[in-house]
Amino acid sequence: MAEVDPETLLEWLKMGQGDERDMQLIALEQLCMLLLMSDNVDRCFESCPPRSFLPALCQIFLDECAPDNVLEVTARAITYYLDVSAECTRRIVAMDGAVKAICNRLVVAEVASRTSRDLAEQCIKVLELICSREAGAVFEAGGLACVLSFIRDYASRVHKDTLHSAMTVVSRLCTKMEPADPTLPACVQALSTLLRHEDSHVADGALRCFASLSDRFTRRGVDPAPLAEHGLVSELLTRLSNAAGPAQATVSGPSTPGANTSTTTPETKSPASVSTIISLLSTLCRGSPSITHDLLRSELPDAI
To answer: What residues does the E3 ubiquitin-protein ligase TRIP12-like TPR repeats domain cover (predicted)?
Structure first.
């Protein structure tokens, strides 16, 4: 099909009823191609200005009848705009309900469906880019609970880079959480589970989230004890004691008496991770008498 001029593209983007949906999808695919192949940002934005096209793209997300395949291409187009210019973020945030609609796609995702999974993964990428400039808007839209639920339910069924992007979103959103937030208990429970996740990137991300939350409690002069309600302290001590890796196991080979074969499976811990653990324990102790009391009667000396 011949390339369609930008004005016609914009007109087609605003369609969405019956057979018009096909025209909308064609417009979305052509817009994605224009954005992806453009070698001149200024010229691209002149022909497909964000001030006109981003509201139209957000409006598609607000359309409850829009099918997943249309929404997936829409999310891709938004991603291309954000990749080209972070300034586009404010235009998306300015669209009432747009960020919340993007977050909600994670809640209703059915990853058994390829299209639905692709849409959810693209939404994670959009949220990651928005959070780099406007994390507060994503938090206010309920993004933290949506992304945590998505990780909990589908971590093993999405691409690893999507999982890591999701944790980046969670890490940024946790900096916006207040001690009195009603969603804090659910957040702490989810993060406590993620601390033991098999993917070290996810587990370390959860650790950084707890560091952000504890700093928030400290700045507000609030006891951070609620952060430790699901085994945070014991997990920190376990991580600290394993920081240098487990002890080396020596196995004697049966065919060669006296010859020993040493095998080790160290759990690698970066200095930054160990530093975060110690800093977090210190912050928790400074702010919470109950955590300090428990730590003094724990295996802290052995862990150190």
So the answer is: 17-132
Q: For strand 249-252 and strand 260-263, is the pairing parallel, antiparallel, or unpaired?
A: antiparallel
Q: How far is CA 5 from the centre of its chain?
A: 36
Task: Give tens-digit pLDDT for 1-41.
Answer: 456 788 899 999 998 766 789 999 999 999 999 888 887 88
* Residue 17 per-residue DSSP state: S
Cβ neighbourhood burial of 1 (10 Å; 0-12, 13-18, 19+):
exposed
260 contacts 247 by C-beta, under 8 angstroms: no
Burial of 111 (0-12, 13-18, 19+ CB in 10 A): middle
Can you tell me which residue has the tokens 């952060």? 227
What single string gives the DSSP state of each residue in 189-236? HHHHHHTT-SSHHHHHHHHHHHHHHHHHHHHHT---GGGGTTSHHHHH
Q: How many helices (H) and strands (E) does the chain have?
A: 16, 2
User: Could you give the angle at the alpha carbon of 239 between the alpha carbons of 233 and 242, nearest 5°?
Assistant: 140
- Give 39-83 as a DSSP string: S-HHHHHHHS-HHHHHHHHHHHHT-TT--HHHHHHHHHHHHHHHH
CATH 3.30.70.2860 fits 1-144, yes or no: no
